[in-house]
TrEMBL record:
Record's keyword annotation contains Transmembrane: yes
Organism: Oceanibacterium hippocampi
Keywords of the record: Membrane, Transmembrane, Transmembrane helix
Protein name (Swiss-Prot/TrEMBL): Glycerophosphoryl diester phosphodiesterase membrane domain-containing protein
The keyword Cytoplasm appears for this protein: no
Length: 285
């Protein structure tokens, strides 16, 4: 297979989003509002975050059984947005009607495939790390070389599992555009020789967002401490936590994180769409 142009794929994904940000908003506005509401409800049900030396408490069985469907619903709504954005990029499809991302059988297939994909990934990752865990247990309290070897094995196996699963990721754009003749074997074949390129596509593509997020956290925390640090006094964590979760600081941080999350999600979908276009559609042209 021809090599995937990593930089061009990343640039195309970002460029498409910024040129069509209005379309993305029309596609996802309703489900984004629903998910924002659910994101507020879930923490209220699970209780406040522990502070200081408090030990986190697991939610009760009843609470867990109640919030689990909410998380499933959020994942399903994200799948609806992903399908619509994939179809917009690959098919030029425009949102029709007030609900830009309809809920249909394609979304169901996409959601089920996503759940199975990530379950499979974590199962494979867990099984791959068992030898490293055994080495770590056998060398516990022994030489540092044994621990270093275990960490090396974990790192190698984790990267290997990621590379293997990234080769299957082209299945998602295919599902989104309704291709029932394109399965996991096809995704594996079309990504042949491009596992590392797909890996670096994700790494280089998300690196700017990570940098922007770190810069924002630094600026936000600097503004917070310079504004309320003197009032709270050094070491008064309760006062600082109250300042962080209230007023304009909380609202500003919420808006900034929401915008970064939307950009992250949109360009992540774009990475796969444009990789699919280059490795599948252009290869078959």
């Amino acid at each position: 297979m021809k090599p995937l142009p990593v930089i061009a794929t990343v640039v195309d994904s970002y460029g498409h989003f910024f040129r069509h940000v209005g379309t993305f908003v029309r596609i996802g506005w309703l489900w984004l509002l629903v998910m924002a509401t659910l994101s507020w409800i879930v923490p209220e049900l699970t209780g406040p975050e522990p502070s200081g030396s408090e030990i986190p408490q697991m939610p009760g069985v009843g609470t867990f059984l109640f919030i689990l469907p909410l998380y499933i619903l959020m994942g399903f709504l994200w799948s609806a947005i992903a399908v619509a954005w994939h179809r917009h990029i690959l098919l030029g499809e425009q949102p029709a009607g007030p609900i830009g991302a309809p809920l249909n059988g394609t979304v169901v297939r996409f959601f089920v495939a996503s759940v199975l994909y990530f379950i499979g990934f974590y199962v494979v990752l867990f099984l791959a790390m068992l030898p490293a865990g055994a080495i770590a247990m056998m060398t516990q309290g022994g030489s540092p070389a044994g621990g270093a070897l275990a960490m090396l094995i974990v790192s190698v196996l984790a990267v290997t599992a990621c590379l293997l699963y990234l080769r299957f990721s082209l299945i998602f754009p295919a599902i989104a555009i309704g291709r029932r003749d394109f399965g996991l074997r096809d995704a594996w074949q079309h990504a042949r020789g491009n596992s590392w390129r797909i890996f670096f596509m994700w790494f280089l593509g998300l690196l700017p967002l990570i940098v922007v997020n770190l810069i924002w956290l630094w600026a936000w925390s600097t503004a917070l401490f310079s504004t309320v640090g003197g009032d709270c006094g050094f070491g008064n964590t309760a006062c600082m936590e109250e300042a962080m979760t209230g007023g304009r600081f909380m609202a500003t941080n919420f808006v900034a994180n929401a915008l970064l999350s939307l950009l992250y999600y949109a360009v992540s979908i774009g990475f796969l769409s444009f990789a699919y276009r280059r490795l599948v559609e252009e290869a078959n042209a």
